[in-house]
Amino acid sequence: MTPALLPALARVLASIDAPRNLRALYALLAGFCLAGLLLAMARSALGRDEALLGALWLGLALAVAFFGVNTTGLMLMDQARSLPVRDPQDALHDALRSAHRVLLALLACLTLAGLAVLVLAGLLWATHLPVVGAPLLAVVLPAGVLMLGGITFVLVVLVGPLAGPAVWAGRRSRGVLSFLRARLRHGLPETALLMAAVYLMVALATAAVSFVVVSGSQLLAGLAILGAGVELPARQLLAGVMGLGPRTLSASGVPLEGGSLGLAALIGGGVVFALALALPTLVWLRGCCAVYLALTEPE
Question: How far apart are CA 236 and CA 72, in angstroms?
Fold first, then answer.
């Protein structure tokens, strides 16, 4: 590890403080909850064989989740740059004006990757040709493995994590592509090392949140059923914590019991599930912002 990477790594590890950004947490939770509601409406429509309406609700859910993540990312970028964190309303307004740049940059990168895959598919088809087929396969096979693995690696450690932060920092789509190309040509190992630290933090945050949710839900279920006499099955009481709704619970063979009390348990558990999903996502987004700043604005 070069000495220049030590400050960058310290900057990335400081991203563990992301949950302290309550405005960003509020924006992400609101986006996740609204997207979850729209997704439930899509499932309900598909269950009634209303494919068009279900597709509409599903599209709206994806749009809400996308703009919610970009709204949160803008506020986390403010935090990472030690700037005053903008209000959620202002961040949403800015996300509506700039989030399309993320899509354009990702679409351009995926198009290039798709073209490379098409070329590889053409070469594989050419292995059916007589005489040259077998020697060509001997060359295309290792080259194809390395190419596809390399594309996947670049998408995971460079394009996917850093396209959003580049836009949140003010770059346009062309500037995002220039940044990604420069990191691919001259700084991919350093970028991969910093992103590995982010992945490790997210894994640790997910493990910690999962432990809290699982242990807390089990203890609460025992207290509610055995101590307080709440007349609900333990599986239903904890269904919302596992991300299950009324329709999903019924489809799994467990009828919804308790009337309004059972529905309230599902709603309360759903809030816990959304919070457990939001906290590691905050760490992920904050870490990606820190990696981008460490690569472009070294201290």
Answer: 32
Single out the residue of 246, 243, 222, 245 nearest to residue 234, CA to CA: 222
Block means of pLDDT (10 residues each) for the chain, 299 residues, are 70 86 91 86 81 90 94 94 91 93 94 94 88 85 93 94 94 93 91 93 92 82 66 61 56 53 68 85 94 82
Largest Cα–Cα separation, the chain: 79
Residue 80's nearest CA partner among 176, 155, 163, 8 is 8
* Total-model pTM: 0.85
Contacts of 182 (CB under 8 A, 6+ apart): none
Q: Cα(101)–Cα(267) distance, rounded to whole angstroms?
A: 35
Token duo for residue 95 = 């996300």
Torsion of CA 45, 46, 51, 52, to 10 degrees: 30
Going from the C-alpha of 153 to that of each of 74, 94, 148, 176, the distances in angstroms are 26, 31, 9, 18
Amino acid type, 14:
A
